[in-house]
Amino acid sequence: MKNNIHPKYFKTKIKCACGSEFEVYTTKENISVEACKNCAPLFIGTEERKVIVGQVEKFLKKYKKKS
Fold first, then answer.
1. Do residues 33 and 14 make contact, with C-beta atoms less than 8 angstroms apart?
2. What is the pLDDT of residues 12-46, one digit of tens each?
3. Could you tell me if 28 and 13 are in contact, meaning their C-beta atoms sit under 8 angstroms apart?
């Protein structure tokens, strides 16, 4: 193997805008993120789902088999 071709790895704390921190090994020394696994709506289950009334009925009407 060749020497001095691999990047240096650091044990880094990733800091989120919500205040949580966690450690990982990476090639960057400082990492700041806007959303993490603790505050992103996808992970904590608070994602809003907009349900249109009659959406299923509209689908069934459109693709109903004709006799």
1. yes
2. 999 988 888 989 999 988 889 888 877 776 655 55
3. no
